[in-house]
Design goal:
This protein has 343 residues and is α+β, with helices and mostly antiparallel strands. The protein is built from eight helices and 15 strands. Among the domains are: 6-94, no CATH class; 156-293, DNA methylase specificity domains (Adenine-n6-DNA-methyltransferase TaqI, Chain A, domain 2, Alpha-Beta Complex), CATH 3.90.220.20.
């Protein structure tokens, strides 16, 4: 194909980009049918796509994203040391059509040095001890942390439609011509696709918003899937896939967020099988959702306990992930030791 088409670009994609379907790195090629052989090929190495590159994909500004730079360099096929190169087609042919960056001499071959198998096992054992300690801390917290009384007489059940406590804003999509990827206007969130662990990550911005959420409004997905929530960290535009719930009196935003998360299955289940071919919750249905509301001091205590437990759970997941990664290296390290004649 390189002799009959113009191979315009080879874009290298990072390991983990297609998780959970495959952990392997891959690439995509851009061809153009010109009837003439390829002269030069533009290579670009993507190291991040704006996500965590893990099985549980998380998106956000904290993650590296090379695609804006890729799109900026593409029109003129700009080059950059360690990132983008223009390679003569003949060099690819002479390299037996091997287009890995290291084989073409564009980057240094990755040198893999394995730790000793004994070191891996010692590290895993130390992490397992930390895991057991964390589990015991969490168990004791659950045993001793609560009062065991459940919803007390001081709690009231308040409907989302109660305007003394909440303001409900249903999203509405603005005209397509008013939102783009350029940072002009307010961040625009359309649905759960932009949600993160706590806050949504903006991919588009709207210059003429129809419906606006304010900072600390709770955002809830109202169209397939129904129920997932995030907290707005800034003033933003919301599309028809979301609604914003604003706490007006007697309710803390994070308490409302966690309360809705505890009821997510109940909320989504209430609209399953209602017909229409598309699962969604209407404003009148959302207004009927009841939230148990304790006094503010108790809300603060509950928020603190939830977030303390979440922190420990995240530590636990991190230790488990590190343990899995180390155990994945155990067999290669064992083989390396064996074929050094040291086993």
């Amino acid at each position: 194909m390189i002799k009959e088409f113009a191979l315009q670009a080879v874009v290298m994609l990072p390991k983990g980009m297609f998780e959970p379907y495959t952990p392997n790195p891959t690439c995509f090629l851009i061809f153009r049918k010109t009837g003439r052989p390829t002269e030069n090929v533009w290579f670009y190495n993507v190291e991040g796509d704006g996500s965590s590159l893990k099985k549980a994909r998380k998106f956000g500004p904290q993650y590296k994203n090379d695609f804006p730079d890729l799109l900026a360099k593409w029109p003129k096929r700009e080059t950059q040391e360690g990132r983008a190169w223009l390679v003569p087609a003949q060099k690819i042919i002479d390299n037996n059509y091997n287009m890995t960056l290291s084989s073409l001499g564009l980057v240094k071959p990755e040198k893999i040095e394995h730790p000793e198998p004994e070191e891996i096992l010692e590290s895993v054992a130390a992490k397992q001890e930390k895991i057991f300690d964390l589990i015991e801390e969490m168990r004791q917290f659950l045993i001793n942390g609560g009062n065991g009384k459940g919803i007390s007489s001081g709690w009231g059940l308040i409907k989302i439609g109660n305007e003394k406590y909440f303001k409900l804003i249903m999203g509405q999509s603005p005209p397509a011509s008013t939102y783009k990827t350029e940072k002009i206007g307010l961040p625009f969130f359309q649905g759960k696709a932009e949600f993160g662990e706590l806050y949504p990550a903006a991919r588009k911005y709207c210059s003429q918003p129809n419906r606006i959420a304010e900072k600390d409004d709770v955002l809830i997905s109202v169209r397939a899937p129904v129920g997932p929530t995030n907290l707005s960290k800034e003033k933003c535009c919301i599309g028809r896939g979301l609604a914003a719930i604003r706490c007006i009196n007697g309710v803390l935003p994070r308490f409302l967020l966690y309360a809705l998360r505890s009821m997510e299955n109940q909320i989504s289940g209430s609209v399953m099988g209602q017909g229409g071919g598309f699962t969604a919750i209407k404003k009148c249905q959302l207004k009927e959702v009841e939230i148990p509301i304790p006094p503010i001091p108790e809300q603060e205590q509950i928020i603190a306990k939830i977030e303390q437990s979440q922190t420990k759970a995240e530590q636990l997941k991190q230790l488990q992930a590190e343990t899995e990664a180390e155990l994945a290296n155990f067999v290669p390290a064992l083989l390396a030791k064996a074929f050094r004649g040291e086993l």
